[in-house]
Amino acid sequence: MPLDLILGAQWGDEGKGRITDTLAQNADVVARFSGGDNAGHSVTVKDRLYKLHLIPSGIVHPHTTCVIGAGMVINPATLFAEMDTLEEAGIDIGPERLLISHNAHLITPAHLALDGAEEQQRGKSKLGTTKRGIGPAYTDKTARRGIRLEAMATDRVFQPKLRQHLEQANHSLEKLYNMDGVDIDGAMEMYQGFAERLRPYLVDSGFFLADALHHERRVLGEGAQGTLLDLDHGTYPFVTSSHPTTAGALLGLAIGPQYLDRVIGVTKAFQTRVGEGPFPSEIHGDAAKRLRGSGDQPWDEFGTTTGRPRRCGWLDLVLLRYAQRVNGFTELALTKLDILSGLEMFSLCTGYRDGESELFDLVDGLSRLTETTPILEDVLGWDQDLTAIREWSDLPQGAQNYVQHIESALAIPVRMISVGPERDQIILR
Is there a catalytic annotation at residue 155? Predict the structure, then answer.
């Protein structure tokens, strides 16, 4: 059976969780492959909203096995808080349903402290991190001084590794940043308890996934963040510390490309971004507030993890084509089309102006984005409320035209269109 990937085509927050929730109905395994609890997916089931940061959103389907892959960094405090919340809701979260790669890396209180210290030191050049310790954890991983979860399997290995890590981090906090270090004894005691609880869940996730695919089980790779936040291919340095792209998925899941079938790029019908960095099609004022919402509804444009208001703008076809090139999307899932209802006219970014030049593809990468202004095309809107529509043919002509314009620009089909947050508010084509 094939591997299908669900990837963000923008700066994250595209609604990947609800697309995963839809496709997980026909999947046997749902696996996360990169990032940590700096990302969040919201899944609405009837009157209940599940906010997940580490556990794959396929967990709300009782028939799926969920995997946390080797490319992830794990804060056990967040993980166990999520597990407890799910168990209270009656969802089975035992070791038979949730498998965690022993090659994933550990986030400690020292990583959180270092993240905050580094961001504070940047001053006006801050990156807008979530301060969840993600960057320092990946830094330790790359520097080959990180702690893999496999170390937690035995106290004699884990305890000296953790103490050495905390002592080194405290030296940096105190000498480099002039800040108090973390409580080493308190952290050691807390993480000893975490290790004991985590051990039954640790597996070689790459072996499990390869075996599942070999035995014709359908595997769904659930992405976090988005292409434009990729460490190598995003709007550097305003990026995440991992690879939320197709190549990163295969690496983080430890499986080869021979199984890959569908690569589903998820994009909103408009554009959003949290934190700092270039945003050519960004808008302000009443138009931005209209797209963002007031915050009264859980689907308004406020971060699942941080609660920060998202920057909003019109859909950017240049960046969408770039994301397609990087990932090899076979199709798109378009979310939040219903939010555009009621706009008499809105815009679509089709290119950029850089001085007297016009750019329609990123032939020089993303570095020139701060020097450009968007070329905007007016789009005729529609009045009809879309939230009750379930068939393509029932969409108003303006909405159909908009979707077809996106398909034409990317030369791939839009297979899924969400028109609301509920499970059934989706149009399948």
Answer: no
259-293 pLDDT, tens digit each: 999 999 999 999 999 988 999 999 999 999 999 99
Contact 35, 52 (CB under 8 A): no
198 vs 234: CA distance, rounded Å:
33
CB–CB of 31/56 below 8 Å? Answer: yes
Q: Token pair of 151, please?
A: 């170390």
Please give the structure tokens belonging to residue 167: 């002592």
Query: What's the gap between Cα 274 and its chain centre?
Result: 12
CA 320, 323, 326 angle in degrees (round to 5)?
155
Q: Among residues 65, 63, 150, which one has the least CA distance to residue 106?
A: 150
| Active-site residue, from 4, 13, 37, 230 | 13
pLDDT of residue 38: 82
Selected catalytic residue, list 21, 41, 316, 338: 41
- Contact between 54 and 82 (Cβ < 8 Å): yes
Query: In this predicted structure, what is the pLDDT of residue 46?
Result: 64
Cα–Cα dist 385/137, whole Å:
45
- The average pLDDT across 236-256 equals 95
41 is catalytic: yes
Instruction: Select from 72, 67, 83 the least CA-distant residue to 27.
Output: 67
* Residues 6 or more apart in contact with residue 93 via CB below 8 angstroms: 55, 59, 83, 86, 87
CA-closest candidate to residue 395, choices 429, 344, 423:
429
Q: What is the CB neighbour count within 10 angstroms for residue 203?
A: 15
pTM, two decimals, is 0.92
At residue 126, the pLDDT reads 65
Q: Which residues contact 214 (CB under 8 A, 6 or more apart)?
A: none
The single-letter DSSP state of residue 223 is P
The domains found in the chain, sorted by start residue, are: 3-91+205-428 (3.90.170.10), 105-201 (1.10.300.10)
Pick 80 or 295 by higher pLDDT: 80
Largest CA distance in the chain: 66
The residue with tokens 């089931």 is: 45
Name 422's bridge partners. 44
Cβ contact 311:287 at 8 Å: no
